[in-house]
Amino acid sequence: MKKKGLYFLVPCLTLAILVFGYSHFSANLNSFEYNIPATIGNAEIFIAEVTTPAGFKKGLSGQTSLGAKQGLLLLFPKSDHYGIWMKDMLFPIDVIWLDGQSRVLGVKENFLSTSYPEVIYGGELSRSVLELSSGFVKKYQINIGDTLVLKK
Questions:
Q1: pLDDT tens digit string along 23-51?
Q2: Torsion angle of the four alpha carbons 62, 26, 51, 81, in this order, in degrees rounded to the nearest 10
Q3: For residue 130, which of 151, 152, 106 has the smallest C-alpha distance?
Q4: With a threshold of 0.85, does the pTM exceed it?
């Protein structure tokens, strides 16, 4: 009788551990800490920074949403023409290219998740790219020349 109970209990516990572990891992796979206060134009936001090649490639892919006042800032090591794609994205975003002084150089509004494999570029040499919720640029009237100011 005890062996029959173990044959049932061990697989159930193993399955529970695997499910919990996977859900915990996948929930944190692309979790960013949006804890850096910043302003862009007249809008106050909280950003997370990405500074690694793996982070640049992954970006917001796989996340289910982005808060209305959250942004992901991709900080590249040098100025260049940086392209953004929507591989594995689950929601549309606004994309802002910034120069070395964090001034807005280019904007792409409402970049759709269905646009992959299209790659978009800001048009000028940029040093960083800011990804925001779709509609942010329009709502806060972000313009070329506005500046992103980090309040670290």
A1: 333 334 457 999 999 999 999 999 999 99
A2: -20
A3: 106
A4: no
CATH of 32-150, one of 3.40.50.261, 2.60.120.1140, 1.10.150.120, 2.40.50.100: 2.60.120.1140
pLDDT in tens, 76-119: 999 999 999 999 999 999 999 999 999 999 999 999 999 999 99
pLDDT at 50: 97
All residues at 6 or more sequence positions from 147 whose CB lies less than 8 Å from its CB, including other chains: 40, 101, 102, 103, 104
Give me the residues paired with residue 128 across strands: 75, 98
Catalogue the E-assigned strands of the chain: 36-40, 43-50, 70-80, 83-85, 93-98, 104-111, 119-121, 126-133, 148-150
The structural domains of the chain, with segments of one domain joined by +, span 1-31, 32-150
At a CB cut-off of 8 Å and minimum separation 6, what does 57 contact?
none
- For the beta carbon of residue 59, count every other beta carbon within 10 angstroms: 22
